[in-house]
Structure of Small ribosomal subunit protein uS2:
Amino acid sequence: MAQIEYKDLLDAGVHFGHLTRKWDPRMAPYIFMEKNGIHIIDLNKTLSCVESAEAALKQIVRSGRKIMFVATKKQAQEIVTEEAKRLKMPYVTDRWLGGMLTNFGTIRKSLKKMQTLEKMLKDETTVSNIAKRERLMLTREKDKLERVLGGVADLTRLPAALFIVDVKREHIAVAEAKRLNIPIFAICDTNSNPELVDFPIPSNDDAYKAISLITLAIGKAIEEGLMERKQDKDDQRLVEEEEAKRQVDKGGEEAAAAPRAEVPAIESDEE
């Protein structure tokens, strides 16, 4: 499992919270002190929370389920998109569409429409028969759908959990996940409500370095879970192959041990 050290958190500025006047009192257990009008996050609590989140995520991924990454704020989009793509996990980094979880059936219809448009615009024969103005409109519609839904194009069922950067900003995603009892793992700054989250990770959610450090640690845990799943499948396949071989060997032994019927002698016609 990825090992983040206290110094790593310090160097990335994970400990810098918001102005004290903007705090959410429910973050009090994760705050170390106040300095120059800013709340300082307790990094020992952060380390403990990261460890708990990593362990839980590994188990979810090991079972073959998906984690959806959600981060629409500018400084988080690039790193979250890259990590989600690397892990082949669904992600939302442009805009959260209301109902993305609670109205998943409609989202699936939009995805099918996007795929149909993509296929249509790749077909030279079809494109040549469409007026230039209409073709432009269809291309814009496809691009818009890809921008918003491209990260969930391969999602065939609801994700098993969400990893969110900035609970306050992604409040709609949080509300939908809670309504469906989908576990939430999230970076929570001092202005957030950690009680909305199953696995809060107290951290600066504005600085790129802080977001990157936490996201990469989460990504590493997911990667390890994927590797363990692959190992589990390989082990299971070996067990099945050994069992099949044992059955074949057993069948051969039983056939060899079976008594043979005596063949009656054939009388010769020759005298």
